[in-house]
Write a structure and sequence with these properties.
Layout lengths: L10 H16 L6 H13 L4 H8 L8 H7 L2 H16 L6 H14 L3 H24 L4
Helix pairs in contact: 1-2, 1-3, 1-4, 1-5, 2-5, 5-6, 5-7
């Protein structure tokens, strides 16, 4: 994975960032392996301490309240969380209405306008298509 601005988060920001991923993944009531895998990858990319990762995993069955998490985060951390939460929401192949609602709440709290949010959704779509191309090139699909 590439180095990301999440490596500069304070421990509290890293925890809040990961909690938002848990909230989004839990929103539709069904956690799938792809969601868990991307959350693990994002926690690794942010260089989250292993003990904190255990704490985050333990929240899967009882996620924290979104508003309380967002209140602790800086605008930069909220924007990074929004970007990556869209990836988490998309990884199972569809956006659930509960996930969309949460993403819109995060966007509003982060000061992200509708056009910027739409651009992020397009970025995620293009990213998944780009990734799928590698499987096609290798004859894996």
């Amino acid at each position: 994975m590439y180095v990301d601005l999440t490596v500069d988060f304070t421990p509290d920001e890293a925890q809040g960032y990961a909690q938002i991923m848990i909230i989004v993944a839990s929103a539709d009531g069904a956690l799938v392996k792809e969601e868990l895998a991307i959350i693990e990858g994002l926690m690794g990319r942010s260089m989250m301490h292993p003990e904190m990762r255990v704490d985050i995993r333990n929240m899967l069955e009882d996620p924290p309240k979104l508003q309380l998490v967002m209140e602790r985060l800086s605008p930069v951390a909220l924007k990074a969380a929004l970007r990556d939460a869209i990836l988490v929401a998309a990884v199972d192949g569809e956006y659930d209405s509960a996930e969309i609602k949460i993403l819109k709440q995060i966007a509003k709290a982060a000061g992200v306008k509708k056009a910027e949010l739409s651009a992020l959704f397009e970025w995620v779509k293009a990213g998944w298509e780009w990734h799928k191309q590698s499987f096609e090139m290798l004859g894996l699909v």
